[in-house]
Amino acid sequence: NYGSAQIAVPYKYTIDEVINVTIIINDSIITVYANDTIALTARIYEMVNNKFSFYGNNTSATIENIKFYE
Length: 70
Description:
By secondary structure, the protein is mostly beta strands. The chain has strands at residues 21-26, 29-34, 38-43. It has a three-stranded antiparallel sheet with strand order 1-2-3, with no helix packed on it.
């Protein structure tokens, strides 16, 4: 259990829709872009060695092609 959601954006998706997500972490700021139309930004203190997660309510998802850059 990772706790309750701190940020949520309603999004109507279709079955089998591919959502391209870009995540940029700069010090304590995380920005998430979804399909270049939705942007979420949050400050996460002590980001190093901490975990974060993604989940969907009442749905399932497959996450593919994860790439990390430094």
